[in-house]
Amino acid sequence: MAMEKENHELRAIFVPFLSTSHIIPLVDMARLFAMHDVDVTILTTSHNATIFQKSIDLDSARGRPIRTHCLKFPASMVGLPAGVEAFNVDTRKDMLPKIFMGLAILQPEMESLFQQLNADFIVTDMFYPWSVDAAAKLGIPRIMFHGASYLARSALHSVQHYKPYLKVDSDSEKFVLPGLPHELEMTRLQIPEWVRTPNLYTELMRTIAESEKRSYGSLFNSFYELESDYYVHYKKVMGTKSWGLGPVSLWANQDASDKAARAGRGQAKLEQKGKEEEDSGCLKWLHSKPENSVLYVSFGSMSKFPSLQLVEIAQALEDSGHDFMWVVKKKDGEDGSFLEEFEKRVKASNKGYLIWGWAPQLLILENPAIGGIVTHCGWNTVMESVNAGLAMATWPMFAEQFFNEKLLVDALKIGVAVGVKEWRKWQQFGEEVVKKDQIAKAIALLMGNGEESVEMRRRARELSDAAKRAIKFGGSSHTNLLQLIQELESLKLDRINGK
Q1: Is this prediction's pTM over 0.85?
Q2: Helix, strand, coil content of the chain in percent (nearest 5)
Q3: Domains of the chain from N-terminus onward
């Protein structure tokens, strides 16, 4: 009996990349597998584990087979202070290559653990392309995790394959992305710079694409009803298997205790007592506001703005006449006195609430007072906003965010573009400053009562309903997960039987 159970029990290792925006969705995915009796070990470093460990402890207490295995990050070996082991908003540029060096040093230890922990399959972030070879040596499947949308990956493939940006005469001239289900227009400046001007990152992305083709398949935090055309298109152009398991935050965090654990994660800089007071303070403020009356403004865990841009945002928010909640991160070394005065003023009028640093976003977005969101189009925030049935004002900056804007504004029609014109490197700022009039115009459409505004919000609510159906028994994501687990069980039995 014990041998039979051993043969049928699936053991998995999940390896998130060392960045909050990559860690959170992949850990939620790992928790879904554990909910369905797959024995799960998450490999990460000690500091990064603090981001999600409360959630793992809760799941373990429920009897789910999940745990974290912490690796000691070799900070001193690569010349980093203790505790600096992640790519986040406060990571200095000179530290980035050192973190990559630390990851390279950890690679043999991770490979060894794949074998020691007797993994039947591994799920690794796209930024670990070497793991496909490690899995092949052990004769087990490697599944790649993408932290983006199906549209974004399809659009990137179109840009790289057809190179439409070479066929226009200027940086601002629009062109259509060829071969996609929708007619999506972009400009040269909105395409990632590493595509336009090849560099080391271009080579890394090529290696990642090659490793995906040799993987068993890929996982996305998305669901069929959200981007069905691109779900089908992507699998066709890549020629690989893929499963949308989203929305993972909605599925993995259904209990109040889950949401509270996620809201209290170690990413916050405040002491826990102070953090709890801040959380309850912002939620108490929201509870005092009418339904759908508050605009939420957040640019994710990876972005800061210079003072010039913060001033424009502040003035647009104040002029809009809407109540607002703004998660603020200012650029290091810049004068924040304007914002402090602004905060005093909006606090006195009870029109605005500023959160400095990290915010309990899941709890905020699901609050009935929130009527819309201004977002950087990071995929985690997009999915959480879709879950909550919120329309979005889109302000993309880097990575695949301009592609996600196309999904929201042009394909799904649940977004209004603020009008950002230029893709920029992470942690860098170009000359572009989005003016308060542009911001105000987008806010007016997002929060307004006109036909277009009402229709946009109706579509967002419909997608929210579809998201909830996708994770229920018989729903698209639920079915995908069960089918994938069944496939992986069959592969394990074939391996045991020497096939």
Answers
A1: yes
A2: 50, 15, 35
A3: 2-251+473-496 (3.40.50.2000), 267-468 (3.40.50.2000)
